[in-house]
Amino acid sequence: MIILGIETSCDETAAAVVTDRREILADVVLSQLSDHRPYGGVVPEIAARAHLEHLDGLIARAMSDAGLSFDQLDGVAATGGPGLIGGVIVGVMTAKAIAAVRGLPFVAVNHLEGHALTARLTDPSPEGLAFPYLLLLVSGGHCQLLAVEGVGMYRRLGTTIDDAVGEAFDKAAKLMGLGYPGGPLLEKAAEGGDPGRFELPRPMKGRPGCDFSFSGLKTAVRNRLDELPPGPFDPVDIRDLAAGFQAAVGDVMVDRCTRAIARFRAEHPEGNTLVVAGGVAANKYLRARLTALTEKLGFRFQAPPLKLCTDNAAMIAWAGVERLQLGQTDTLDFAPRPRWPLDPTAKKPAGKGAKG
Ligand code: KG4
Ligand code: ZN
After folding, report:
1. Nearest atom (ligand 1) to Cα of 141
2. DSSP for 217-237?
3. Quick one: pLDDT band at residue 356, thresholds 50, 70, 90?
């Protein structure tokens, strides 16, 4: 089975071709970073226009990289949400057009499901990663712990009550004058820094449950910066504060994941893997902290290769493979969904500004 995947839900325009034998035949990603950088964040209208301009060229390139023609495909999958609606519409309409013209099945993929199932595409073991597993999904828009029990079967154990962790990285980096997007820049700035020099909180640490909170940490970063001598920031101060921020996030992650692993184990004695996915999973410091935790607890740790942690279309094509194998397709009247929770039964967490 060969599936074309399309991703347009945020600021990456991407197309990929993936098989049911876990082969990535093509994987092209065009980042719009430079279009959005002057604004310090993603501008939805600019994103939608850029997707429209580049998507057909990227699909043509993916097909040529794979050495395939459209009639060799078994289906077309596109991100159907959640995300910036203008972009999602561009991807969904393009996928529907290809499906209609070629008479192929169309699959509308939940972007978060794409991140959640990537580990089953990339797991290095020959037999692949079996359900159930525990997933820490950490990106610019999401920060969740989920029990992944099967395709379409996700149970949320915890979520953020305010900012997503990638958002916290981006905001803290902006305060430190590091630029956009903040995650990778902050990680780089933290190299060699003293994480203990500045006092920063560990929000939610030690609390029952598996929810997260990051807005207090961002405020503390602002306060520590305000306490510095006036004038341009000293790079050593920024290095130490960035290291302190990363250490605080690491402590929170370890605490929340310890609880989630205990809960997951009680409910799923056969599961033994923690998967980390989403853009923040590219952070090497956090990966190291989580690897150490899982080793201590006798759990497996699996993180997709960095390129497949951030937004891409291979994960969408793979989710399309998984769904099509189960006969789950969508009709051509599928309506793009700006909001689309993976676990619709999960209650909104208590907290101001909770995103659910
Ligand atoms: O999954 P993703 O590409 O897009 C969303 O669906 O949000 O994640 C992007 C987020 C951004 O907030 C970015 O700053 C963060 O992931 N990120 C990182 C790193 N690389 C990307 N955060 C911390 N450390 C990194 N190395
Ligand atoms: Zn994403």
Report:
1. 7
2. HHHHHHHHHHTSPSSSPPHHH
3. very low
